[in-house]
Amino acid sequence: MIRITLPRTGRAPMAMTAIVLTAVALGGCDGILGGKEEFNTGSPIVLDATQRHPIIVSQQPHKLSLQVARGSAGLSPQQRASVVDFLTKFHTADSGNSKLVIAVPSGSANEIAAMNAVADMRPLLNDRGFSESSVSIQPYHADGDPQPPLRISYLRFAAEGPECGKWPGNLAETSRNLNYENYGCSQQRNLAAMVSNPADLLGPRTMTPSSAERRDVTWGKYVKGDSSGTDRSGEERVTKQTQ
Questions:
Q1: Any idea what the Cα angle at residue 156 is, between residues 154 and 157, rounded to 5°?
Q2: Is pLDDT of 116 > 90?
Q3: Tens digits of per-residue pLDDT, 118-161?
């Protein structure tokens, strides 16, 4: 406690008033300058929720196992549908950042049946734009398994949201008016759970090749001096109706 004795004469009362106001001002700044009211976490001030609660994007294996019985001639209709769905997810969740790996059992009783299943997959792969370089077929030995499965896998991006619910301090006991520890955490966690392709969080997707046919048509019209716009019929045009 600061005790101030005011003189009785002269211009001292005005001077003492200035001293008192200065002391009060410094006392009010105590919490801001690092006094009792420190920031709740004691961590550096980060106003952006994406920095305080980052989303971790990593590559994790995505697998499909197919049980191929000995003596089968290829894929069953249900297995074919599962492979088509798996290949569709590859294009949706991977965007060409990983190879498709087909692990074929070797030395087992169903080795020939597994190879027949791989032969059935080749048309499915070709129809969906898989090149030879984007598919890797590898044999594997399943010791002790009389009928090992045929495995299809690839690495896909997965987003992991932050852990929320941290309240280390009382929000009513700070005078700094800064973002609290849990601020923006639920938004980041929901974004990680809802994003369709986590690779989009790392950067924009690459552009697909342009249409060479349409480009040649447009360039030919440009050389001739014709309009490159699409001609519309009278039914497609908007006419102004008068009342």
A1: 165
A2: yes
A3: 999 999 999 888 888 889 999 998 877 888 999 999 988 889 99
Q: Could you say which DSSP state residue 8 is in? A: S
Contacts of 187 (CB under 8 A, 6+ apart): 49
* Mean pLDDT within 190-208: 85
pLDDT band at 94 (very low <50, low <70, confident <90, very high): low
d(CA 123, CA 102): 15
Give residue limits of the domains in the chain: 35-55+161-168+180-202, 61-156
What are the two backbone dihedrals, phi and then psi, of residue 31, each rounded to the nearest 5 degrees? -70, -35
Q: Is the pTM of this model over 0.85?
A: no
The answer to whether the beta carbons of residues 150 and 106 sit under 8 Å apart is no
Q: What is the CA radius of gyration of the chain?
A: 35
The helix (run of H) or strand (run of E) holding residue 51 is helix 49-52
**Tokens, residue 224:** 């001739």
The answer regarding whether domain 61-156 maps to CATH 3.30.1330.60 reads yes
Nearest one of 135, 111, 113, 112 to 123, comparing CA atoms:
135
For the chain, how many residues are written? 243
The tokens of 73 are what? 């001639």
